[in-house]
C-alpha cells in the first residue's frame, strides 16, 4: 500500500510544471496582435490551475481590463488528490477529511488561504478551490488581481467532475497547462464542448490518432510558440533530482523542454506567414543539408511521397506528396500547404505492408519484428554504420521518424 501510494505521489508531482509569466504574456500577445478583440467580452476558464502557485490566473487577472474580459474563472486541484495520484482519491480518504497513504511532508496551506474568513481546515487539502473575477470587489475603480474572490469547490477540482464540467460549458475560452499524462483526455474534454482553447502539451502528441485528425480537419493548430522552441517550467522541489544535467537549472529552479508547444484554435499572425523556400533544383545545389545535396530527395518504399528530413529543405515547386518532420507544424501555413496524412499505420495511407522483418541494431543483434509496418521506409544499398536497419526478403531498409504528409497548394 505504501509503495503504491508513494509511486502515485511521485507521478502526480512530476506532472506539475509551472508556466512562466513571460511565456504566457508572449503567447497571448501574439493573438492580440492579430486581433485585439480576441478575448474581449469572453469568459475564460483556467482549470488545472492554482493562483497561489500558477501564473495563469495572475496574468489574466492583472490584464482583465486590457483584454476586455467579461469573467475569469480558475479552479485548483485538491492536494490530497494530487498526492494519491488520481480522481479516485476520495475513495482512499477516511471520514474527517485528510487522505492517508503517501505524504509530501512540507506542504501546508498558504497565508492567502488561512487568513481568509472562509478558511476551513477540514476542506483545505480535500477540496479544490474556485477563484472568480468579474467585478471591482474592493472599490478601487478597476478590476484586477486584488478583486479575486474564492471559495471551496464541492469536490476535489478534477476537470472531469460534473462541477468543473459545468464551468467548462459556461466558458468561452479555456487556457491552461494541463497534466501532461492526461493531455489527450483533457483535449477531448475541450473538443466535446466545442470551446476555443489555448493549452500547453507535448509535441509528440500530434502523432496520436486522438490528436492528428484534429490537425488535418483544421480544428487544432500550433500556437505562436516558446522562444527558440525552448520551454522552461518551474517544478516542485522534490522532483529536481529527476532530471539530467543540462535539463534542470538549479540557479533558476527551471526545467527545460524542447518538445513542448502551445495547442490552440485561436488565430494568430505567424500561422499565415508562408515559409521562404528554394526550388528543388536549388536545394540539390545549395542546401545546407548534405543529405539533400549529396543524395537528393528519396522516395519512400511504402508511401507515395518523397522524404524531406528538414522543413527548410521543402522544395517550393514540387507538386507531389512530401513527408516532413512533425516540427514542420510549427511553421505550417494553411494557405501554402495542405496536410494529407501521417506515416502511421492507423492512418491508412501506406501503399505496402511488409512481411516478416529482421531488425539489426547498432550492435549487430538480429531479431524478428513487425516495426516497419508503422512508419515511412527507405530502401538502402548498404547498412548504415551505428544505426538500426531492417532486412525483408533479401532487401535492406531503414525507417524514418514519424512524418507528416503534405502537399503544396497550387496558386490559383
What does this structure look like?
Strand 16 (about 355-360) and strand 17 (about 365-370) form a beta hairpin. By secondary structure, this protein is α+β, with helices and mostly antiparallel strands. An eight-stranded mixed β-sheet has the order 5-4-3-2-6-7-12-8, sandwiched between helices. Mean pLDDT is about 85; it is low at about 1-15 and about 85-105. It has two domains: about 1-270, no CATH class; about 275-410, no CATH class. The chain is elongated and about 75 Å long. The protein is built from twelve helices and 21 strands. The termini are far apart. The longest helix is centred in the N-terminal third of the chain and has 14 residues, at about 20-35.
Number of helices: 12
User: Structural class of the helices, strands and pairings?
Assistant: alpha+beta
In helices, the fraction of residues equals 10-25%
Taken from the alpha-carbon principal axes, the silhouette is: elongated
Mean pLDDT: 87
Biggest β-sheet: strands ordered side by side in the sheet = 5-4-3-2-6-7-12-8
Based on CA atoms alone, the radius of gyration comes out at 25 Å
Distance from first to last alpha carbon: 66 Å
Report the portion of residues in β strands.
15-25%
What is the number of domains? 2
Largest sheet: 8 strands, mixed
Total beta strands: 21
- Low-confidence runs: 1-13, 87-106
Amino acid at each position: 500500500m505504501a509503495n503504491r501510494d508513494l509511486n502515485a505521489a511521485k507521478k502526480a508531482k512530476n506532472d506539475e510544471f509551472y508556466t512562466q509569466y513571460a511565456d504566457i504574456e508572449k503567447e497571448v500577445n501574439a493573438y492580440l496582435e492579430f486581433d485585439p478583440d480576441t478575448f474581449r467580452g469572453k469568459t475564460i476558464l483556467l482549470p488545472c490551475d492554482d493562483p497561489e502557485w500558477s501564473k495563469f490566473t495572475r496574468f489574466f487577472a492583472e490584464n482583465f481590463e486590457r483584454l476586455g474580459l467579461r469573467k475569469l474563472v480558475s479552479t485548483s486541484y485538491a492536494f490530497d488528490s494530487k498526492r494519491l495520484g488520481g480522481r479516485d482519491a476520495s475513495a482512499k480518504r477516511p471520514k474527517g477529511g485528510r487522505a492517508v497513504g503517501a505524504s509530501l511532508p512540507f506542504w501546508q496551506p498558504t497565508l492567502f488561504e488561512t487568513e481568509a474568513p472562509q478558511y476551513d481546515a477540514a476542506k483545505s487539502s480535500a477540496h479544490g478551490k474556485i477563484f472568480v473575477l468579474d467585478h471591482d470587489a474592493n472599490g478601487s475603480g478597476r478590476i484586477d488581481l486584488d478583486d479575486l474572490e474564492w471559495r471551496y469547490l464541492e469536490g476535489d477540482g478534477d476537470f472531469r467532475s460534473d462541477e468543473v464540467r459545468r464551468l467548462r460549458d459556461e466558458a468561452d475560452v479555456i487556457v491552461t497547462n494541463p497534466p501532461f499524462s492526461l493531455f489527450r483526455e483533457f483535449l477531448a474534454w475541450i473538443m466535446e464542448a466545442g470551446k476555443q482553447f489555448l493549452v500547453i502539451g507535448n509535441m509528440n502528441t500530434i502523432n496520436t490518432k486522438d490528436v492528428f485528425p484534429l490537425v488535418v480537419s483544421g480544428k487544432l493548430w500550433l500556437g505562436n510558440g516558446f522562444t527558440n522552441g525552448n520551454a522552461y517550467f518551474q517544478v516542485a522541489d522534490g522532483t529536481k533530482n529527476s532530471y539530467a544535467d543540462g535539463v534542470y537549472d538549479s540557479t533558476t529552479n527551471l526545467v527545460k523542454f524542447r518538445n513542448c508547444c502551445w495547442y490552440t484554435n485561436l488565430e494568430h499572425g505567424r500561422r499565415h506567414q508562408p515559409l521562404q523556400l528554394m526550388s528543388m533544383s536549388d536545394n540539390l545545389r545549395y542546401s545546407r543539408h548534405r543529405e539533400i545535396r549529396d543524395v537528393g530527395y528519396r522516395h519512400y518504399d511504402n508511401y507515395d511521397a518523397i522524404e524531406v528530413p528538414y522543413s527548410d529543405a521543402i522544395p517550393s515547386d514540387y507538386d507531389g506528396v512530401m513527408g516532413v518532420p512533425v516540427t514542420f507544424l510549427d511553421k505550417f501555413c494553411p494557405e501554402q500547404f495542405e496536410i494529407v496524412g501521417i506515416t502511421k499505420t492507423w492512418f491508412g495511407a501506406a501503399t505496402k505492408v511488409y512481411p516478416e522483418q529482421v531488425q539489426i541494431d547498432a550492435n549487430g543483434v538480429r531479431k524478428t519484428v513487425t516495426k516497419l509496418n508503422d512508419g515511412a521506409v527507405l530502401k538502402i544499398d548498404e547498412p548504415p554504420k551505428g544505426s538500426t536497419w531492417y532486412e525483408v526478403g533479401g532487401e535492406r531498409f531503414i525507417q524514418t521518424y514519424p512524418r507528416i504528409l503534405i502537399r503544396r497548394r497550387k496558386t490559383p
